[in-house]
Amino acid sequence: MTTFKTIGKSEPRRDLPEKLTGEAKYTADVQLPGMLFGKILRSPHPHARILSINVDAARNLPGVRAVVTPFDAPKGQVAPDMPILDTEARYVGDEVAAVAADDEDLAEAALSLIEVKYEQLPFVTDAVEAIKPDAPQTRPGGNLVGGKPLTLIRGSVEEGFAQADRIFEETYSTPAHAGAALEPRAAVASWDGDNLTVWKSTRGVHADQLALSLALDVPRGNIRVMGQNMGAGYGTKDETRLGAITAVLAQRAVRPVKIELTRQEEFVAGRHRHGTTTTVRMGVKNDGTVTAVHATTIMDTGAYLSSGPGVIRRAGQGALYLYRCANVQYDGYLTYTNTPSGGSYRALGAPQGHFALESLADTISEALGIDPLEFRLKNHVGLEGQPGERVTPANEVLDTQPVEGGVPFSSNGLRECLQRGSEAIDWGQPSEQPESGNLRRGKGMGMFIYRGGAGGRSIARMRLESDGSLRLLTGLMDVGEGSLTVMPQIAAEELGVGYGQVLVTFGDSETTPEAPLTAGSTATFSTGTATKEAARQLKARIIEVVAPLLDTEPSNLQITDDGVEHIQYPERSVSFAQIAESAGEIEVEAAISPGSRDHVINSFGAHFAEVEVDTDTGQVRVLRYIAAHDSGRILNPKLAINQVEGGVSQMLGFTLSEQMLTDPRNGVTLNASFLEHKSPTLQDFPEMQVLFADVVDPVGPFGAKALGEPPSIGVAPAVANAIYNAIGVRIRDLPLTPDRVLNEIEAQGGDSQ
Fold it and tell me: In the annotation, is 709 catalytic?
């Protein structure tokens, strides 16, 4: 059994002290000499052409220093379908113009003086309606992104359904879901001649640097992006438009400018989880064997594309890969509407798709008279992967979300998750019913698969500095998941020093090497692999330098917390400071394009819930929750448990109460505040137990796999299935609000079990 020095230990978070004391600096805390304050004018119409904008009165208001409109903004794009400012507004709240003034009140006053002439255009707020032939067109190319659905096929669903004894089909819906992050987005921009510095809420300083370069037509080397602490990311802060607008204002004013969104703006203009309508059709034998799966998702990307193409694909992963089946098809319709934009919210489409798939799995289990757990144990995909033939050439890195069969997983602890989770919740024992006749209890479950792990090319740099300290430099951003704790753990373990010996520099495009976005649960796998390799190289280089100093072979030396010593004669040693004094600063760099030619790399899990339903009020209370995860070797147990608990808590809101509501008559967001947006509180969270499968992945760094996103996936089906177990009512539309529970009770017979 491998013994580790820091891996597997609950090392304290690097950012915890400053966050607890209030010393942590966020983008909104940035203060620069002479800084101005920006505000954005937003469209009152869901779809309109901007004919003219008169800014004379605003520009002449004392204290106003700059104004920018679509007619004088740089013509670059911040995204393929999004200019910095556009002459067409596509949702209520879309950016129309911006001002910078001496203070926020002046900036607001200036907005009120801007006169805009609009030509109102037809609009559509419903994705299902949007793909109909006669729907109002949000784009010249039509509402369906790409003009056709994304279709992914393995085998033949026609043949699979022909083999089935029974075929089941149901349709499910999930709403747009706001991230509701603690910190609204903010950006600060400052120019020094031709050089631009931007401080912003970001998941990737290098990605933002490139995006700003393209949008502003400024050489990438002239732009520096500084990533500050982030009050939760969740994937919803992955856009560049705010930074670009702030930069244009700062350039015009020749002064630094800050724009901080209000809470209402964050709800409306921030990215949210995509609303979906998903139909799942599944063919099974009488013994429960799955013969075919066909899922169709209509996904609302809102007014802009954002990360929609990736999200629509991930929404089908469960249908394509969770159940062992040779015949599957997924059709994904990514659709523009005149509503706020969707984004890459935590788990990127997987919660929506799994809610439909795992709800139908329970319906099938009941119809066949098979226990839901047994149905999943019989059919879940195993270590060997899916049946079929490998399509990817043998010398190419495999996609982490393939459609093809014939490729094994690097590891698969799903069966252990099912077994351990079911034992923890006493699955074989019915829930003990309360004495009150209106309260009913039940248990439910849902399993899942998640594409995580290998992300984009990542570079890590490690350095023995002139003062003898060890430093890791990474372009990775910590968005709350704990990367800035785990990366030093990985580096320290590989070097053979204590966790506290490794210092970290991050979040600065000028001083750190390239790294992908902190997204899709790829950070630990991708940047962690690069970090491990950089630490290995630094270790080898240090020992190589020390060997002649101690007059011995490198194989006789080992690194300690203090420096390097002879293995047999520890008194023969040299400190890191002495090494640096003798050899100077030592720096190495490792570039990694992570992945595997032999394995599919995915994480798995199974969630179990016990609920109590009040049949008089429709109120649902989650009593107990078991979350069992296969995320490979757990590098930091406390951080991992926190990740799971946070993901489950967040998605209880998605499941039970949270939704973004748009008035179809005028496109207005109806609940853009915490007064109307019903997020759960601490009182709503259940007793929770987190379990981890005893799995070590052979590909990931020290055996780790993705964890940040997967906790979000299993909540909705586990709770929905538990409600059915409690009262015999199947609810196919989220959120499971009291009124919806009561309506479904009435619709399905007027009484419950």
Answer: yes
